[in-house]
Amino acid sequence: MTTDATPAERYLEVQRSAEFSALRRKLRNFVFPMTIAFFLWYALYVLLSAYARGFMSVKLLGNLNVALLLGLLQFVSTFVIAWYYSRYAARELDPIADRIGNELAGTAVPAIREPEDVPATRDPEDVAARETEGTTTDTEAAK
Fold first, then answer.
1. Global pTM?
2. Structural domain boundaries of the chain?
């Protein structure tokens, strides 16, 4: 990538790059099939509710019938897809997007993020200690 290009030219250059194309392809290869699968699952629920009332009204346990169970599974499947996407994005998409973003910003790009770079806990005291590292107070600066 050239450094003397205008910001618009730099973005267009990135957009034409093979790495960006691969990132978009990976995203589409996940999003489109998942969207179609969820839409078909939802359409099945709607069609069964409209045309298979006898089946949907079968009681399974107490007042729980097939329709209520499938309706609740719609929520479960939404959360499962969101969880799976977040894992997929963190593993497959984010490293490529980070490299592209860092290249645009002109910063060095780490090849792989190491697990030990990520803090195991978000303890407020640890976060506060890390934030104050390297900073001085007014009394320290006066000395």
1. 0.64
2. 7-142
